[in-house]
């Protein structure tokens, strides 16, 4: 039987251990500080233990979050609303786990309305780089003065009757126009050279063990993609007519080694509706800021198709990249597994999927299905299709 003196000794020792642990924990938490970003932006969490060497046991086995070598002047860009918070949280977590925890690139969030505190708090804690939050200027998210409101309303009503996706949406049209002609002019993006667009709800399936931004820079690539479906014809009935008018007025802007054969099967008479899906794109911001592209966008904008029809930023970006760039400036990322409803890009090669620890089902890979334009891109560049593509065609 243990005596009362022994019991008191055990209790005293236990209490002392607990108090020591609590003092250690308080000392650790006390070293965690908040750094407020300039211009009233969201605070960024800074863990001082990472930099002083006084690492807590919980962090002992975690790798130091730093980029292994030089980085490009680049950022992620997300257009989101406050109500998208948990869908973008999943997308950020996917990107950070697969890539950015090793490279710590910044993340720019844009919204036509102010971001609320919860959105800033959640997304700031998820990003390994600096998170920045900006509001879109009213003039970049509204009807331009030359748009006939009655004509635009009638177009929306007609598309609604035809049940065309987003056919009756005003905000979707503002979004497409903004992504086509204004996002690269936002003040938060002016100091960057490259961007990677990430949307809510997307998923990245494979480890990315190199830096795509540096690949773009070192190989002089201007635009890149992972998915290339056909556009809905009903949304862009006069887009190619406007494009041909631009080509006639500005032949000096058309690159002699362009990708016309990717977007037209008859030398430019008609558009075959192939486009790069712009919800994923890694590209040069300087390309969109160039005079050829600004002239192209201004010409399209004056024609009013963003509002009289439902022109998307994806076909606009695709046509511009195909006509204004050297065809070798455009890159396809086979190694980056990606999902945006309803399409999946999964690396074709089994060897690549295993090497990159991909979690996607290769049978879901869209690349070689009947509605994919990727074979045209390979043919244009004279590239050999990856091993195993035959097994991923439509049955």
UniProtKB/TrEMBL annotation:
Instruction: Indicate what this protein is called per its UniProt record.
Output: Glycosyl transferase
Q: Does the keyword Glycosyltransferase apply?
A: yes
Give the highest taxon in the source lineage. Answer: Eukaryota
User: What residues make up the catalytic site?
Assistant: 281 (nucleophile)
GO molecular function annotations of the record: alpha-1,2-mannosyltransferase activity
| Similarity field | Belongs to the glycosyltransferase 15 family.
Its Gene Ontology cellular component terms are: Golgi apparatus; membrane
GO terms in the biological process aspect are: cell wall mannoprotein biosynthetic process; protein N-linked glycosylation; protein O-linked glycosylation
* One Pfam family of this chain: Glyco_transf_15
What keywords are annotated for this sequence in UniProt? Glycosyltransferase, Transferase
